[in-house]
Amino acid sequence: NPKRKSISRIAALSRSMDIFFGGYLNKICNEIFEQWKNESKWEHKDKVKQIFYIVYSGGDDLLIIGPWSEMPKLALKIQDEFKAYTCHNPDINISAGVFLCKPKYPISLAAKAAGKELEHSKDKKRKRITIFGDTIEWQSTSGVYFEELLDFGEKLYGYINQKDAPRSFVHGLLRKHKQFKGGDDYRFIPAIIYQLVRNIKNKDLREELKSKLITDKNGYFRNIKIPASYALLKSRRGE
């Protein structure tokens, strides 16, 4: 409401944003770090004091560097905490972009690349995160959303780790996604069924994956880039 605008109200909003991004953000990073430390099997983890480096954070903008495997969790945590902090105001939202690179990649170039990923989120009506080459809503009432895809990625990783599904099957999902135009070409359905029968020996798991990839109304296959990429990276590095 333009009539409710005033210098004092704008100043109060600015201070509130600065409190979150300039202060509370550190607490969020520490929580995800402690979670990583408790779950990690890395022998040198006790020598690490932090896994996230906040390049800048203030006002309504931030840039954070961290291990690829923890960045999706951190992004989701920041989103959830920010929405709670703003009392779930529908007019105040976060857009995010995550760029993955090798450890020696120049920070300046990585920052620019992350900025381009962020623009993809903003171009698609904001309230989204762009990661692993896909842009998805944080929350949605009409389709699959980010946390669901991240959970599915963890499940796919578990199937690979437990030898219930080969990595080639997950690679195949990405190929089929590209081949059948992200699921717009419904010929992907018999192709996925064939891959399930060929690669998944456990009947119950085969039916579960069939439901997720084909019959689920949310359409996990349309956004398979995020969970499949997550599972493949995590299984490749043995984390």
The 3D shape can be described as globular
Q: Uncertain regions: pLDDT < 50 for 5+ in a row?
A: none
Write down the overall mean pLDDT.
92
- Tell me the number of strands: 5
Class by alpha and beta content = mainly alpha
Strand fraction = 5-15%
Please give the alpha-carbon distance between the first and last residues.
50 Å
Number of helices: 8
Oligomer: single chain
Side-by-side strand order of the widest sheet: 3-4-5
Helix-strand topology string: HEEHEHEEHHHHH
Helix content: 55-70%
Give the C-alpha Rg.
20 Å
Largest sheet composition: 3 strands, mixed
Explain the overall architecture:
The chain has 239 residues and is mainly alpha-helical. 55% of the residues lie in helices and 9% in strands. The strands form two sheets. It has a three-stranded mixed sheet with strand order 3-4-5, covered by helices on one side. The longest helix has 33 residues.
Keywords:
mainly alpha, 239 residues, two-stranded antiparallel sheet, 9% strand, 8 helices
Helices, strands, pairings?
Blueprint: H1 7-39, E1 53-58, E2 61-65, H2 71-85, E3 96-97, H3 107-123, E4 128-131, E5 134-137, H4 146-161, H5 167-179, H6 188-199, H7 203-215, H8 225-237
Parallel strand pairs: 3-4
Antiparallel strand pairs: 1-2, 4-5
